[in-house]
UniProtKB/TrEMBL annotation:
GO terms for molecular function: isocitrate dehydrogenase (NADP+) activity; metal ion binding. Belongs to the monomeric-type IDH family. The keyword Transmembrane does not apply. The keyword Nucleus does not apply. PANTHER family: ISOCITRATE DEHYDROGENASE (NADP(+)) (PTHR36999:SF1), ISOCITRATE DEHYDROGENASE [NADP] (PTHR36999). Binds 1 Mg(2+) or Mn(2+) ion per subunit. GO terms for biological process: glyoxylate cycle; tricarboxylic acid cycle. This is Isocitrate dehydrogenase [NADP]. It comes from Algoriphagus lacus. Its cofactor is Mg(2+); Mn(2+). D-threo-isocitrate binds at residues 147, 549.
């Protein structure tokens, strides 16, 4: 491998991180090129993925490579070195908006066929559905997850604690979940003793049989589980939750993961919308059906479709909606000025980020008057909801956490090879008729079985053995390296977790655990244990499955350091390569809105800096490349200084933003390279650059800051115009000229 060109693949994504890339990548490429390291880009943006899926509809010059497929393949090779920025996991409304924008830009793409009739439409829908939801991360994540706040980041947070809402023991905020009929209550699981192939069959109460899936290959040692959610129980629960929110005078707020759980959660979301607006749906059922309303895409879909109706009919329905609002608890708002509620679009409120944000704000969310108010967080399934209730209880009892003193909860997450719920989409079904769902093996033996009613959701998950072994090893390695207690968050009451507990107990003895503190606790107990420790300033590693990996790596970072953007997020790929994710958060659509309205980008690129440093280190080690190692080391030092000197972007216009922050990183990085003594040639190359930046610091900052305060046109949202965006993101001519000297 050492005679191949060392190469980092840097991903082009969406929204705020994509904007930031326009400013940061030229710096990175200039620096790395000078040291003989190549940084190439791969387009995995939503628009890029759409364009590359429909070459036959496009002019030859519009066609682009399927970079995601290429990266997915590379991720399984030892030389993989990928820096992955957050991307949009598109809900249907986002997908449609992106298609519309691309069509307007001259791409003759087909519309998204909501109800496909012809074979062609079915094939178009299948292609779009592959792009929908979380379609990138599962492809690239050929390894487990190691997410933590580096020491420099914790120290920065302690020195500059972010604001944290106070907690009162009187708070009425709480989590509400089903008490029966959910996935949690119905989960069954087993470990496969010999490789086989299974099918999933629905046998109707009348004997009718439908094969839902066949030929699903299972490996020896693989854990499978299946569970079902009863729709009648869900509806009854939602109805009760709505009435209870009204009785208690708290906001009603639904928290799902409709992006990642792209089959099950939009259905649950749709039921919540229908239950909340029940009188409207009952009275206008036929009309709403005739205009093609699909509330799995949110209440916004209903509002958009009303445009198809004559004015008087539309007014009648709108009046009934108003009457329904008047009779209901207030709904938590995404944007109170624009009247957008949490029920409008399923991708606006995503549980991993939304619950911690609520907990950071005293357990409150925004009401329609734009004021914070106590909230009922509706999380129908019980599997993980208890973690949030336990955190809320902890804050009610002990007051808010103190970022200046609190400890840390890093995470080791089981994620590889589409583990657990996050790989269940192709085995999730909305049941067409009442009966029994059976998972049947190659010998015709029924492995798992559930009674279901029409409309229920049934799903099966897989967790392969090799990733489990790797996860246990990673947990022990992290516990050893950081000398920190590690807790496996596994619930013996759950079928799947019970199987995993057996595996953990089987594989832990393969490692030297002497002197390490390792526990297995249910998620609720683990939450209490970890919260008590962080309050005392102590660290505790959470070792979790895939969903809690996602939830906890927003929850604790948001409480500890204000945002999960500051996380180091490493995916040691199982075949030896490295995937370096930038932060643990998403693509921050709110930041784009602020940028286009007032020219200030508050996106914090710290996650990119951290990821790039470990990517360079990995590259240096894999290819025995001292220049890459040196670039990584100096970047790490520069990042440390960047934090010490507090060059993080401000939230408000007129002050240093993302772009000015990049300039400071470049200056510190050049200074570190000029200062080091391992490579005199590199030092000589970077010394004049550092000097030029130092001498022009004030002028450069002025050029950045004075570009703010006015609307910015980037010529597109999902596919911005590259020339316009580059100009907007690189407004300092002085800095651009200095950087050009490196070329
Ligand atoms: N790894 C990935 O690819 C991920 C992708 N996503 C996708 O991202 C989109 C948005 O998801 P959402 O749930 O809103 O979560 P986000 O993490 O994008 O946003 C939540 C909030 O977190 C803060 N934030 C996140 N990243 C940064 C950063 N680098 N700098 C400063 N603040 C930051 C912002 O808060 P503030 O308002 O305080 O500035 C932001 O509004 C969706 O399409 C989702 O599917 C989500 C998670 C991970
Ligand atoms: O892929 C996605 O949709 C979200 C991923 C995510 O939230 C995470 O990994 O933290
Ligand atoms: Mg997440």
């Amino acid at each position: 491998m050492s005679n191949q060109t060392p190469k980092i693949l840097y991903t082009l994504t969406d929204e705020a991180p994509a904007l930031a890339t326009y400013s940061l990548l030229p710096i990175v490429q200039a620096f790395t090129k000078s040291a003989g390291v190549q940084v190439e880009t791969r387009d995995i943006s939503l628009s890029g993925r759409i364009i590359s899926s429909f070459p036959e509809y496009l002019k030859p010059e519009q066609r682009i490579n399927d970079d995601l497929a290429e990266l997915g393949q590379i991720a399984t090779t030892p030389e993989a070195n990928i820096v992955k920025l957050p991307n949009i996991s598109a809900s249907v409304p986002q997908l449609k908006a992106a298609i519309k924008e691309l069509q307007a830009q001259g791409y003759a793409l087909p519309d998204y066929p909501e109800e496909p009739k012809t074979e062609e439409e079915k094939s178009i829908k299948a292609k779009y559905d592959k792009i929908k939801g979380s379609a990138v991360n599962p492809v690239l994540r050929e390894g487990n997850s190691d997410r933590r706040a580096p020491l420099a980041v914790k120290n920065y947070a302690k020195k500059h604690p972010h604001s944290m809402g106070k907690w009162s023991s009187e708070s009425k905020s709480h989590v509400d979940s089903m008490s029966e009929g959910d996935f949690y209550g119905s989960e069954k699981s087993l470990t496969i003793s010999a490789a086989t192939s299974v099918s999933i069959e629905l046998v109707g109460n009348d004997g009718k049989k439908e094969v839902l899936k066949s030929g699903l290959k299972l490996q020896e040692g693989e854990v499978i589980d299946a569970s079902t959610l009863s729709i009648s129980a869900l509806k009854a629960f939602l109805k009760k939750a709505k009435a209870d929110a009204k009785a208690k005078g708290v906001l009603f707020s639904l928290h799902m993961k409709a992006t990642m759980m792209k089959v099950s959660d939009p259905i649950i979301f749709g039921h919540a919308v229908k239950v909340f607006f029940e009188p409207v749906f009952t009275k206008h059922a036929a009309t709403l059906d005739s205009i093609g309303v699909d509330v799995n895409n949110g209440f916004g879909d209903l509002l958009a479709n009303l445009e198809k109706l004559p004015a008087d009919k539309k007014a009648e329905i709108l009046a009934d909606i108003d009457a329904c609002y008047a009779d209901s608890p207030d709904v938590a708002m995404v944007n109170s000025e624009k009247g957008i509620t949490n029920l409008h679009v399923p991708s606006d409120v995503i549980i991993d980020a939304s619950m911690p944000a609520m907990i950071r704000s005293s357990g409150q969310m925004w009401n329609k008057a734009g004021k914070l108010q106590d909230t009922k967080a509706v999380i129908p399934d019980r599997s993980y909801a208890g973690v949030y209730q336990a955190t809320i209880d902890f804050c009610k009892k002990n007051g808010a956490f103190n970022p200046a003193t609190m400890g840390s909860v890093p995470n080791v997450g089981l994620m590889a090879q589409k583990a657990e719920e996050y790989g269940s989409h192709d085995k999730t079904f909305e049941i067409p008729f009442a009966g029994t769902v059976n998972v049947v093996d190659a010998d015709g033996k029924v492995l798992l079985s559930h009674q279901v009613e029409a409309g229920d959701i049934w799903r099966m998950c897989q967790t392969k053995d090799a990733p489990i072994q790797d996860w246990v090893k990673l947990a022990v390695t992290r516990a050893r390296l950081s000398n920190t207690p590690a807790v496996f968050w596994l619930d013996p009451q759950r079928g799947h977790d019970a199987e995993l507990i057996k595996k953990v107990n089987k594989y832990l003895p393969n490692h030297d655990t002497s002197g390490l503190e390792i526990h297995i606790m249910s998620p609720v107990d683990a939450t209490i244990f970890s919260c008590e420790r962080i309050k005392e300033g102590k660290d505790t590693i959470s070792v979790t499955g895939n969903v809690l990996r996602d939830y906890l790596t927003d929850l604790f970072p948001i409480l500890e350091v204000g945002t999960s953007a500051k996380m180091l997020s490493i995916v040691p790929l199982m075949n030896g390569g490295g995937l370096f994710e930038t932060g643990a958060g998403g693509s921050a659509p709110k930041h784009v809105e602020q940028f286009t309205e007032e020219g200030h980008l508050r996106w914090d690129s710290l996650g990119e800096f951290l990821a790039l440093a470990v990517s360079l280190e990995h590259l240096g080690q894999t290819f025995h490349n001292p220049e890459a190692l040196l670039l990584g080391e100096t970047l790490d030092k520069a990042t440390g200084r960047w934090l010490e000197e507090d060059k993080s972007p401000a939230r408000v216009v007129g002050k240093l933003d993302n772009r000015g922050g990049h300039f400071y990183l470049a200056m510190y990085w050049a200074e570190e390279l000029a200062k080091q003594t391992k490579d005199a040639a590199l030092a000589a190359k970077f010394a004049p650059l550092a000097k030029a930046m130092e001498e022009n610091e004030a002028k450069i900052v002025e050029e950045y800051n004075s570009s703010q305060g006015k609307p910015v046109d980037i010529g597109g949202y999902y596919r911005p115009d590259t020339v316009k965006t580059s100009a907007a993101m690189r407004p300092s001519k002085t800095f651009n000229d200095i950087l050009a000297q490196l070329a």
